[in-house]
């Protein structure tokens, strides 16, 4: 499994991609972000919850991905 995932973890770089999430429409927010042509799975992801002032230092991203 590590050999399969290695190419994905080695190339994480570039500009962070910001995903704006509406708590009432989490799945729709995720699909909108992924469909954006600028979205790249190899870029770091920053998550902002709509209407909240939290800085994403890991917590909002973990909550979103959970």
Question: Your description of this structure?
Answer:
The chain is of the alpha+beta class and 66 residues long. The chain has one domain (2-65). Helices cover 39% and strands 15% of the residues. Helix 2 (26-35) links the parallel strand 1 (17-21) and strand 2. The mean pLDDT is 78.
What is the string of helix and strand elements?
HEHEH
Q: Identify low-pLDDT runs.
A: none
Number of structural domains: 1
The largest pleated sheet is described as: 2 strands, parallel
Strand order of the largest sheet: 1-2
Query: Percent of residues in helical segments?
Result: 25-40%
SSE inventory with pairings:
Layout: H1 2-10, E1 17-21, H2 26-35, E2 45-49, H3 59-65
Parallel strand pairs: 1-2
The gist of it:
Helices cover 39% and strands 15% of the residues. It has helices spanning 2-10, 26-35, 59-65, and strands at 17-21, 45-49.
Give keywords.
single chain, 66 residues, alpha+beta, two-stranded parallel ribbon, 39% helix, globular
């Amino acid at each position: 499994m590590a050999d399969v995932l290695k190419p994905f973890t080695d190339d994480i770089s570039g500009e962070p991609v910001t995903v704006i999430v509406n708590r009432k429409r989490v799945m729709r927010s995720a699909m909108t972000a992924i469909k954006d042509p600028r979205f790249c799975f190899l870029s770091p992801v920053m998550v902002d919850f709509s209407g909240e002032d939290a800085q994403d230092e890991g917590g909002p991203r973990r909550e979103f991905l959970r």
